[in-house]
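User: structure tokens for this one?
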Amino acid sequence: MTIRALVLWLVALAFVGWAAAQVFHVVAQDRIAIVARLGKPIATITDPGLYIKAPLIDAVVSYDKHLLPLQPPLDEIILGDQKRVEVTTISRFRIADALRFYQSVGTEDQARINLSQIVSSEVRKTLGKATLPSLLTAERDRISDQIRDEVAQQAVELGVEVIDVRILRAELPVETSQAIYDRMSSERVREAKELRAQGFEVAQEIRSKADREKEILLSNALRDSQTVRGVADAESNRIAIAAFGRNPEFYDLYRTLQVYRASLTQGGPTLVLSPSSELMKYFAQSPKLQKLSPEPKP
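Assistant:
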């Protein structure tokens, strides 16, 4: 076979392949197809298989049957209590009416743009009546269901069935969060200072009360001790007087010995007395010591 013949065969095969592609088209299991003739839809194919179309004048557009995700851009919304929050939602939808979908939006990308606008509008409208605490409790699910129902009604015009719309995140802006944190921190510092001041005041009261009770206890104890000591001294003096009254000479000796003890101990006062002093009479009357003779040796 010559090169010219081979080229002709290849051209013929390419033409046949092109003609087959123009005549036949395949619809996959997970796709739904719209056949449009000169831009006007003439058939909707939902079953998978091989189908014939008119070449050159018919075009086939296919769409996904699966659930499709949608996550619009972050929205900054003012709530009903005038709190500013940043909200992120996530939605799930599927193409329910392929013909209406083709006529209204044409492509999945355009459907996402239109559906994102619907979701954003409903989120703003619904959250504009809600408060921040409701987004932090179980009330959040009820709000999400309300948004989903409203979006689903409007999405019917696009040929789309909205399965779910959920609030993925609802957070305060960074600058607002920082301002709230600073305010809360200042409030906690103020409360801590108040508590410390109150504690110091209570401590002072307790300390003053304890000092007052201490002084009262010490005064009472001193009074009682002096009373007991006075009673004891009086009793001691009474007993001493009664005892010494029976023997005045012994009393005089006892008192003189006390003076000797106080005067003759180390560190006592120095007294200069004459031998004839009354205080020295007992030294003159001291008994003579007898000199002991040594015992005889055996």
